[in-house]
């Protein structure tokens, strides 16, 4: 929960102190081990990794290496890690866009903001319900947004706009929603 909260606040603040190095992890999971593949994919994605080819994962978060080492050790998988910078072969911007599906992620952010920009709560119950929905939908973004360094994101990055939008809406709707919650609890007791 704490890690999720930290990641949510990081979506608003961005990552500006990246040193240009990537962490690459090569791990092969047999095709027949579907459940194990799912666990590896889910956990590596949570750590900010994206697959760039079969078994090869990349991240900008060098600090994730100990957690990945522990995960792969627990799963008894052989793996190798490398740290380095991008070379001059290929289009790094395209690799970043494709690996982390930035176009799809931007569309998710746009849909999120469109849905909540359209709401105009006017009663205490509406503030409460709209606020709950806002928080509920916003909390899934750390699962799909790798919080890449600002240097690797399109400018302007819609994720930052969505994070600021969510913060603003939380400040507007939150106090009235929380007051309604207190009344609901008081009435129930």
Short précis:
This protein is of the alpha+beta class and 189 residues long. The chain contains eight helices and four strands, in the order αβαββαβααααα.
Your description of this structure?
The chain has 189 residues and is α+β, with helices and mostly antiparallel strands. The chain contains eight helices and four strands; from the N terminus they run H-E-H-E-E-H-E-H-H-H-H-H. A four-stranded antiparallel sheet has the order 2-3-1-4, with helices on one face. It is elongated. The mean pLDDT is 92.
Give descriptors for this structure.
single chain; 189 residues; alpha+beta; 4-stranded antiparallel sheet; 8 helices; 58% helix; 12% strand; elongated
The H-and-E topology, N to C, reads as: HEHEEHEHHHHH
* Model regions low in confidence, pLDDT < 50 over at least 5 residues: none
Tell me the major beta sheet: 4 strands, antiparallel
Number of distinct beta strands: 4
> What fraction of residues sit in β-strands?
5-15%
Q: How many angstroms separate the termini?
A: 28 Å
Q: Over the alpha carbons, how many angstroms does the gyration radius reach?
A: 20 Å
User: Portion of residues in helices?
Assistant: 55-70%
Overall pLDDT level: 92
Described by its quaternary structure, the protein is single chain
Q: State the helix count.
A: 8
Structural class: alpha+beta
List the strand order in the largest sheet. 2-3-1-4
**Gross geometry:** elongated
